[in-house]
Amino acid sequence: MPDNENAISRRLMVGGAGLGLAAIAAAAPASAQGSTDTATPKPLQDPTTKYPRPPYPRQTQPWPGLAGKMDPKPDHGELSYKGTGRLTGRKALITGGDSGMGRAAAIAYAREGADVAINYLPAEEADAREVVDLIRAAGRKAVPIPGDLRDPAFCRRLVDDAVRQLGGLDILVSNAGRQQSRASILEVSDEDFDATMKTNIYAPFYLIKAALPNMKPGSAIIATTSEQAYDPSPDLYDYAQTKAATMNFVKSLAKQFGPKGIRVNGVAPGPIWTPLQVSGGASEGKVVTFGATAPLGRAGQPVELAGIYVRLAEDDGSYTTGNVYGAGGGQGQP
Ligand code: NAD
Ligand code: MG
């Protein structure tokens, strides 16, 4: 604990009982209260027009896709996310940290003061490099660990490497996912089905099992589930059931790990503008109208979920476990 924080807590412990809130606030230096400007009113932002609305340009990329090649480019908070020290000193591992929700979480975590290891596929090196640069620009340690999560031995090595290079592990964000749209179950090959299950269900099992012995009370596990867990689309038969499984393991492991002081929560995005969608996750036609049926009338952007990943990781969320937080554009899930 830095000296000034020590001094504050001593002062609060010694004199806090008799002090009013205003006096306690005045006793804390600006750094302890966050440096956010609360004097200048921020203009209201209309969520329906805050980001590009459909129709989006027709586009497709080979799987797994790159954020850098999308049009328009997704907003992961590169220019907008401001931290206030909510995760100072934490050590986090984020799978799928190169793009989409994982990148938004990585940027936010670094700007909140965490060191961050990211996993991604070797084909995503270009996206991952940008994230590494952003984490380092925030003054934090970045640990890039490429590799395929369908391999159980790699999952275990990933956790070991992250723990070794970060010097511990307080936050695991199991976010990587595979989604490939198939109009009919008859078009889902055995290999497809296997790859979706291995990526979305088996990998979190291997990762959490390897991470748990390294996690102390106060640590947090966060899994990315989906609105698909609750309201599956007909063309996402295999994917949607993996997201229901994710939602379910969040609840069982929260019960199992609660007594250990380790929280487990889920994030359920609605339609979000990420490479997953333009590399086979949605049909080409659906990409053009992506998010159009949401009451907000557009796709969401990864940065619109950054604060949720922070909230579920930080100490302020200490009573939140076994819960799933959504950002669904009004479609009602979870
Ligand atoms: P994304 O393409 O940016 O991220 C998915 C990541 O998964 C990729 O970057 C890749 O690094 C990783 N990945 C996939 N297969 C892998 C493998 N075998 N080994 C290692 N890494 C692998 O897209 P996103 O939409 O940000 O996806 C993140 C999570 O959000 C996924 O779990 C997805 O199911 C979920 N989700 C997305 C949406 C959406 O509309 N985009 C909605 C609900 C849930
Ligand atoms: Mg990616």
Automatic annotation (TrEMBL):
Sequence segments annotated as region (Disordered): 26-83
Similarity annotation: Belongs to the short-chain dehydrogenases/reductases (SDR) family.
Provenance organism: Lichenifustis flavocetrariae
Region forming the signal peptide: 1-32
Stretches assigned to coiled coil: none
GO MF, one annotated term: oxidoreductase activity, acting on CH-OH group of donors
Gene3D superfamilies assigned: NAD(P)-binding Rossmann-like Domain
Pfam families the UniProt entry points to: adh_short_C2
Keywords: Oxidoreductase, Signal
Basic and acidic residues compositional bias, start-end: 70-79
Stored SUPFAM superfamilies: NAD(P)-binding Rossmann-fold domains (SSF51735)
Name listed for the protein in its UniProt record: Uncharacterized oxidoreductase YghA
Domain of life, per lineage: Bacteria
